[in-house]
Amino acid sequence: RGAALLADVCDLRAHACLVLARLAPLLASSALGGGGCGGSGSGGGGLAVWQSLVGCGKRGFEESLRLGQVAGPELGGPWLAALGNTLLKVLEHDPNLGASQACAGGEHGGGGESAGGLLRLLATKGPSPDSRAHALRCLALLAGRWCAAAAGVAAADPAAAAAAGSGSLVLLESSPAERSACGSLALEATRALLLGLEDANPECAVATLDAIMDTFGPDGAHLHALYSSAGCHPKIAEGCQGLKLKLRKGASEREAMGREAAASAKEVILNAQRFLKYKQQAF
What we know:
Largest sheet: none
Shape: globular
Number of strands: 0
């Protein structure tokens, strides 16, 4: 009976996350008139949801790991995947999240360090491939935005650019200490992102490659500096080689992925190889 109750709690969390993910366009601070990170209405909109999700996620993650040891990873896996998906949707629809050091963290644990810590845990220890893949994409978005905040320039990631069409991208005046903190957060997020290339699940590694190219594709001295300091270039090359070997020799991996996903993975690897050549020539 106790196990059934725990399963119901996890199902309830997953459904709550799915609802919030669907509402993400309306939850963005720009849509609700909030001020984003540090703006005049910094307590509302996507930021408030982000803070709550990160705080609940931190508490629920450790609990799910403990439950997984007793009842198996399938108990916490679906809700953690739903949590990662919701965090990603909120980030995609609110370009102001990540525009400052801590995203107005406060007592709810939504600060940059808290968010980065939770996402690093999900990316490396998430019980399901989906939970890890969503966290890796979040890390890629935040790495780009924190890097932009550290340099005092507008974020150039696709999600921010798309969202900025319906709302302004808030760039705050920041002190040298705040910009330095943003730079540290960006570096930590990028290093955690690169670990995704070593994920045993090929689809997670492919998602990581795709996310890295989205973040570091735009030209910019600040992005290139982060790309270099995090050691992205050799890690991407190693990741491409490892994935090619898996797909070439691992019939089980190809079969588990499915024909369409395997074909998509090969295309991402090819794009990554072109990306490496461009980076080598451009810089």
